[in-house]
Amino acid sequence: MTSVGLRWFTGPRRLIGLICKGLMTGLIAATAMAILAGHRATGEVDSPPPKQGRSQPALIRLDETLTAPDSGRLAATLAPLLANPELGTLTGQVADAMTGQLLWTQGERVPMQPASTTKVLTAAAALLTLDRDARLTTRVVTPARSGKPGQIVLVGGGDPALSAAPSDQDSWIRDAARIGDLAEQVRRSGFTPTSIQVDTSQFSGAEMAPGWDPADIDGGDIAPIESVMLDGGRTQPATADSPRSHTPALDAGRALADALGLDPADVVLTATPTVGRDIASVQSPPLMERLRTMMNTSDDVLAEAIGREVAAATHHPQSFAGTVQAVLDTVLNFGIDLNDASLHDASGLSTEDRLTADTLDQVLNTAASSKHQQLRPLLDLLPVAGRSGTLAHRFLDHDTQAAAGWLRAKTGTLTGTNALAGIVTNVDGRVLTFALIANGAGPHGRAALDTVAAALRSYDCETPTSADGLPVGEPPP
Questions:
Q1: Where are the domains of the chain?
Q2: Is residue 119 flagged as an active site residue?
């Protein structure tokens, strides 16, 4: 069985690396520096990452004779770190990426509050069901039947990235569609609008999930989930950590009205599907760009929108309940044990969500397997420790810096909850997958969890241990 490694060069910086079993050159692209989203409620990073040089990834063949991991030695390595009370109640699982062998477990089948590591399942379901180049279309329609002459309808297609920013300015996500482009197409169509209606019929059900805190809207983490939104509900289109809007669909209609010189106060919403003639349309960024931003910045609105794409593709309602069922069914049908998973959203923001470390690690271990190429890009979507996304400012202190550049993981943080699920190459060049979930954590729980994860990088396979976890040949203390 052949394994290959991915070397990362960032300008004059030292060599950093990530090694993933069976990765193919065509599936791995340079990690782009993502715009960081403010995640106040979930504790994700909200300041810009350090500047990097140009990434130049290269694949290298690994030594096939690498020492197999020794579970006893790993348990001995982790034991003193797991005693830190700041962790709260920690569950976890570590497995060998090459063989799938479990190397360490602790409460791995106990359902825990997973926070944003839930996005690992959402991303996996998207990769398994959707075209990676798929784009969502937002349309402007002249309705076949209308009680108002000159009325046009802005029809939401589920794209939360539609931006109010001018075309010559950056948005919070690359390649975003622009409301200004819609307005220009309407003007060129020759139709003279007099009023605007916004069609939100594509999504159904509640706009906020069970377990969501409305305060997180003003806090910048979430917005009511509607089928047409501006900048993910942000009130400031180019600011990643902007406060969000309580009326995102109405905002989109008002922005179009303003661009067309109409009165924004006259814009109304409708939940009835519109039939008519298209006079303008714009498209979202491709799925992979949206997934990359979702995973790197841990954007909850993007996660919910992508979850609804999975729901539509699998013939489920585009609601919270339909999305959850679609994601879980897709992952279960792929052979992942869900271990009594209970989800209420696709983002992990709900305080009522429950997943196990075993489920998360199974997804990542499957992605690392040469047998399942569909999930392989999931590894490339994960933030890099000390380098990108929500891990840009983590794994940089004395106790954890050895893992910087060698560990990739999806983060998850809620009040009292810290989680990491990802992949790491240890000092012997062995690739490990892992999932760590801590509930009831102390104020320094995230740092304590990073220390545990960093130990997976420093873990030395070479010295075998006896059943009591002591190196063979060494007397007990």
A1: 71-131+339-456, 137-285
A2: yes
Give the span between the Cα atoms of 110 and 356, in whole angstroms. Answer: 6
Residue with tokens 């050159």: 25
Instruction: State yes or no: is 298 an active-site residue.
Output: yes
Strands 102-106 and 89-96 turn out to be antiparallel
**Looking at 3, 55, 116, 242, which residue is catalytic?**
116
Q: Which amino acid is at 112?
A: M
Please tell me which residue in 3, 55, 119, 350 is annotated as part of the active site: 119
The one-digit pLDDT tens for each residue of the chain (477 residues) are 333 333 332 322 222 333 333 333 232 233 222 222 333 344 454 333 444 433 444 333 444 566 667 888 999 999 999 999 999 999 999 999 989 999 999 999 999 999 999 999 999 999 999 999 999 999 999 998 877 889 999 999 999 999 999 988 989 999 999 999 999 999 999 999 999 999 999 999 999 999 999 999 999 999 999 999 999 999 988 888 899 999 999 999 999 999 999 999 999 999 999 999 999 999 999 999 999 999 999 999 999 999 999 999 999 999 999 999 999 999 999 999 999 999 999 999 999 999 999 999 999 999 998 778 899 999 999 999 999 999 999 999 999 999 999 999 999 999 999 999 999 999 988 999 999 999 999 999 999 999 999 999 988 765 544 444 434 333 333
CA-to-CA distance for 409 and 456, rounded, in angstroms? 13
Q: Among 55, 171, 195, 298, which one carries the catalytic annotation?
A: 298
What is the rounded distance in angstroms from the CA atom of residue 313 to the CA atom of residue 315?
Answer: 6
Q: Which fold has domain 71-131+339-456?
A: Beta-lactamase (3.40.710)
Q: What is the pTM of this model?
A: 0.85
- Residue 325 in contact with residue 152, Cβ under 8 Å? no
